[in-house]
Structures are given as C-alpha cells and as structure tokens.
Specification:
The protein has 240 residues and is α/β, with parallel strands linked by helices. The chain contains 7 helices and 9 strands. Strand 2, helix 2 and strand 3 form a beta-alpha-beta unit. It binds 6-phosphogluconic acid. The site of 6-phosphogluconic acid has 13 residues, from loops.
Length: 240
C-alpha cells in the first residue's frame, strides 16, 4: 500500500487538490484503458468537489460513475446520494445515461439491491473470476465515528469479505455499501475529510494500534494508492 497524507489549509484548497488528483487519475486511465471508473461517496464534504468536476470539459462518454454506498431510499428522496450527485454534477454535464450506474434502491429489499448492484459491477468489469474487479478510483468520506462508505462500527457489514456489495446498517436503517475488500481492490482510494469534528476519529484511524471494527476506516488498506486529503481543521496534528 502506498499511503499519502496531505493537509490542505481549508475546504476550497481541499476541493481543488481533490479535483487535481481525480483529473490526473482520469487522464491516465483513459490514456491506458480508454475509460475511467469512479465510485463516489455521499454526505456533505464531496458536494463542492462534484460541482467543480461539473465545470470541467471532459470526455464524458469515457467516464463511468458508481456509488460506494447509498441510503436505501428512492432516487428522488432527499437523503439519496444519487440525487445529491445528479444535482451537483451529473445533471449539468453531457454524460451518457448508460455511464451512470446507480444503486438499484427500488428493489424489493436491501439484500436484493446489494446482489443486483454486485451483478451490475461484475458485468461492467466482465469479471466472473474470484478476483475482485478494480475501480480506477474510490472516493470516500469518513464519519466522526470513523465509518466510511456505509461500513459502520461493530456492524455485520464489516465481516463480509467474499462479496463486492453488502447491506450496511446505520441506527437500524439499511444502507447499500461496497465491502472493504472491494474498496481495497481499487487502483486508488481517496479519502476526503474536513472539519475539526473528524479529528478524534482520524487519531484512532491513524494510530499504530486500534480496533478495526470500532474504527472501520482502518480497514481501508488498498493494494494500490491510498490518499488522505484533509483540511487543517481535521488533520493538523497528523501532518508528518
Ligand atoms: C454517506 C457517505 C458517508 C459519508 C460520511 C462523511 O452516505 O453519508 O457515504 O460515508 O462519507 O458520513 O459524511 P460528511 O462528508 O457529510 O461528513
């Protein structure tokens, strides 16, 4: 694992750095393989980044969008990560509808949604083997409880290692989430974390020894690149 930690002075600088990094990965992926696949996170931190990406002139027909997690709500629900992303970015660019791969949250139940999403990912990567397919980029946030995607502390989702997608649980509400082994199969994992409220969780995630099931972001140890992009409010004490 190749881990890089960058602390940026404020949120606008954080967004600018994240944009620069993602555009660089996008350019390389399209040059080498003709397409770029990225899984997005929800929450509030990435919204200005999505707005910034929408202002770029990019080969949208070569860019494929997934979500690393989704609330189990319809795509027009105010809590939907897909809805936030479409409003901030996807509705503002000329990206083919077929390149947007939302979580099927209108399925009969969360387990079926997770299975369907897994099947869609396997078909996209044409992967039937035992190896986990590799997204070019997985963008992650981190909660102040050190959860990431919808992998919450001390939940069953943290024990799922043989699938790409599982059912997470936040306070009894089902979520659809990539499993941590599937996240770890990505070429690059980029955490975007801002705000002083994240500092205690970051301290535990970066500690040499702590419990992975209590601080699930510790489980993210990709075989490829791991980037932590932090604003000063979140990461001042972590700077090397
Ligand atoms: C979600 C996200 C979640 C988020 C963290 C941080 O569905 O909410 O995927 O994992 O990244 O909760 O959220 P903030 O960026 O709002 O702090």
């Amino acid at each position: 694992m190749n881990k890089t930690v960058e602390v940026l002075p404020d949120q606008p600088a954080l967004v600018a750095r994240a944009l620069e990094l993602i555009l660089s990965k996008l350019e390389t992926a399209i040059e080498q393989r003709g397409r770029f696949s990225i899984a997005l996170s929800g929450g509030s931190t990435p919204k200005p980044l999505y707005e910034a990406i929408a202002n770029q002139k990019l080969p949208w027909d070569k860019i494929h969008i997934f979500w690393g997690d989704e609330r189990y709500v319809p795509p027009d629900h105010p809590d939907s990560n897909e809805l936030m992303t479409r409003r901030a970015w996807l509705d503002r660019v000329d990206i083919p509808a077929a390149n947007i791969h939302p979580v099927p949250t209108l399925s009969a139940n969360p387990e079926l949604a997770a299975a369907k999403y897994e099947q869609q990912l396997k078909e996209f990567f044409n992967s039937s083997g035992v190896e986990f397919p590799s997204l070019d980029v997985v963008l992650l946030g981190m909660g102040d409880d050190a959860h990431t995607a919808s992998l919450f502390p001390h939940t069953e989702a943290l024990k799922v290692r043989d699938r790409l997608v599982t059912v997470g649980n936040k306070d009894g509400n089902p979520r659809i989430s990539f499993t941590y082994p599937f996240i770890n199969a990505a070429s690059s994992v980029i955490f975007l974390v801002a705000g002083a409220n994240k500092r205690p969780a970051l301290t535990q995630v970066f500690a040499p020894v702590a419990d992975d099931f209590t601080y699930p972001s510790r489980l993210i140890r990709p075989q490829g690149e791991l980037w932590w992009l932090l604003d000063a409010a979140a990461g001042l004490e972590l700077q090397d």
